[in-house]
Structures are given as structure tokens and as C-alpha cells.
Amino acid sequence: MPFLSDTLARVKPSPTIAVSNLAAELKAQGKDVIGLGAGEPDFDTPQNIKDAAIAAIVAGKTKYTAVDGIPELKKAICAKFKRDNDLDYTPAQVTVGTGGKQILYNALMATLNPGDEVIIPAPYWVSYPDMVLLAGGTPVFVEGPSQNGYKITPEDLEAAITPKTKWFIFNSPSNPTGAGYTATELKALTDVLMRHPHVWVMTDDMYEHLVYDDYEFATPAQVEPGLYDRTLTCNGVSKAYAMTGWRIGYAAGPVEVIKAMGKVQSQSTSNPCTISQWAAVEALNGPQDYIATNNEMFKRRRDLVVSMLSEIDGMVCPVPEGAFYVYPSITGLIGKTTAAGTFLDTDETFAKALLEEKGVAVVFGSAFGLSPAFRISYATDDETLRDACTRIQDFCASLT
């Protein structure tokens, strides 16, 4: 009898974490490697947030808290939703978890039964389908091609809905593409959902504040109030506040679902780190002006990467509306051979050869459900990005 659970056979380790770990290992061996796989800002956590955490430690706020978050943080989250999204929630409708990933996982574990389907637009964050599988559900993928800006259409969504559909996971701006749906585009999708009252919406708004140019963020329950009672609006402090390691995510939605998620968390991790919760209170309630400053740097980096990659024959790099990723299509490079003799039959082969021959670590597109492509995180300094893109240009120029 096998010792390990059969459930584990349904899922795979995170490819993005694997790429980051491999790049770190190669660097530790003394190799010249540029890692562009990590999805986290290179900025330090703002000082006022760190000071709030230190103050919490000094004040002895180091004990267990309520399983799903301290009252002060829930109040700050309610204020954030009202201020930024014009959504009214009470603290009873809010849950706090150990990062955005746990929030999504709790929701799926609390609601999915065998046979339940979850619609996931592709390209998708690598963890969505595996979390659905771990919870016993069935992921249903809807492709948003590069020529459509990596966005799905209302017709695509309509065609994917069946009587078994329980959730539609919506991530905008997107990881891995940075694609952001306008309010008009989002309203067209919510119009479809309004015709199917058995389908709930799970938003992943983690990149809400990382937007560029004239793009304005909107979230489903904001665009279509009729979905309020079947929407779980998820977010966190990781990206906008440069707090990835602090591990605080949160969500708001119907009390019944929030209580169910709390039950899952009570028997898994219990409360998130107390110190991190107090830091998150300051993040949400404190000054927000540095977000715009950071965004200017991200925009400059985005423009640098898109410009350099767009010079490559056979590569198409759409301009993302938000987040800190680009997702170039490499359809025109598949079938070619590298200078070292590697035949590029897939985007995974492309990424492996790029790492071996030029020392640039990227994440291959098949990990995100749409090939052939790859993801670059431009959450690093300009000099490193310029060096990496030059290496990619040289790599592609040598293909035959």
C-alpha cells in the first residue's frame, strides 16, 4: 500500500518557486545567473510598517489572536475596501490568512465537492489549478490568447459554464501577463455571470495598486453590485506594500463562506503571525503615497523590458497594464536550434536552454497554461534587466 496520499499525485510543485530556487543554487555555485522568476518587489518594506511591527513586539503583542485576524486589522480591511473599491463590508465578513495563497486555498477547501468545476482563465497563476485539485474540484481552463491581450471574452466565459460550475477565478491585473481588464471589459464578463446565479466569483486583486498609464483598476462586485452576495473579494499586502515575506492575505464576502474558511484555518495554521497583522494594520491605514512612487519605477522597468524584447524577431511582447510581469509569445522561435545545438520544441526547452547558455532564469509558459511563451518578472533594478534582456536578444539572434 502506498504511503503517500493519492491526492498528491494530482498536483505538482510550484514551477515559479522551482525556477527561483534553481537560480539561487546556481548563483551559490558561483555561476553568473540572473533570476527573473521571483514574483516579489525588490523594494524594502516601508519604514512606518516595520516600525509598527517593532512597536507590537515591544508592547508584548505576541500571543495567539482570533483565528481569522485581529479586530483592528479587520476594521482596517473594511476601510480599505470602502476607500479603494466602494465596497461595504463588516468585520464579520472579513477573514485574514497567512498570505493570499492561504485565503484562496481556504475558500476552495471550504466550498468544493468532487465534481465541482472551477473556471480559470489562462494564462493563470500556477497555484490556481493545483489548489482546485487538492480541494477535490476540477479546473476548467479558458484561454485568453496574446492577440487578445491575454484576456478572455464574454463568449469564452459563457461557453465554459456548466451546471457543475461553482467558481470563476478572476485575476486582474494578471500574474503572469500583467493584463488588466477595463471596467467595460469586466462588466461584459459580469453580465454573463448574472445569467448564471449558481456561479460564484473569487477575485485575486493582489496587484490592484500596481497599474500604469491610464489604466484604472476595478473589481467584479464593484462593477456589478448584483454579484455582491456571491463574490469573495481577495487581496493582501504582499505586492503593493513590499511585504511578501510578512505573509498576510485577506478576503471579504458572505458571512457563511467567511465562517467556513475560518473553520478550515482553525484546523490548519490557526491565526496568521501576530506581528505581521499589526504591520498590516499600519500598511492599510498609513501613508499610501510611496505606492505611486514605486509604480513610476515599475513602469520605467516595464517599458525597458518591452522595448528590448520587442526588437527580437519571432517574439511578440504585449504591453501589460499592471503587475510587474511581461509574458512574451515565442511562437516564431519554436522549431529553431540554439548555438549549443538544442532544438527548441517547447517553451520549457527554450527556458532551460536560455538558462544553460546565457544564465537567464525565466518561467516557461506551459507552467501558466498557455504556450509557447515565458514570464519575466521585472521587479528588479534597471541595470540587471538591461543585462538580462541583452542576453535574451543575443540568445535569440544566434538561433538557426
Automatic annotation (TrEMBL):
Residues 31-392 form the Aminotransferase class I/classII large domain. Pfam families: Aminotran_1_2 (PF00155). GO terms for biological process: amino acid metabolic process. Keywords: Aminotransferase, Pyridoxal phosphate, Transferase. InterPro entries: Aminotransferase_I/II_large, AspAT/PAT-like, NHTrfase_class1_PyrdxlP-BS, PyrdxlP-dep_Trfase, PyrdxlP-dep_Trfase_major, PyrdxlP-dep_Trfase_small. It catalyses: L-aspartate + 2-oxoglutarate = oxaloacetate + L-glutamate. Its cofactor is pyridoxal 5'-phosphate. GO terms for molecular function: L-aspartate:2-oxoglutarate aminotransferase activity; pyridoxal phosphate binding. Its EC number is 2.6.1.-. SUPFAM superfamilies: PLP-dependent transferases. It comes from the Bacteria. Gene3D superfamilies: Aspartate Aminotransferase, domain 1, Type I PLP-dependent aspartate aminotransferase-like (Major domain). Homodimer. PANTHER family: ASPARTATE AMINOTRANSFERASE. Belongs to the class-I pyridoxal-phosphate-dependent aminotransferase family. This is Aminotransferase.
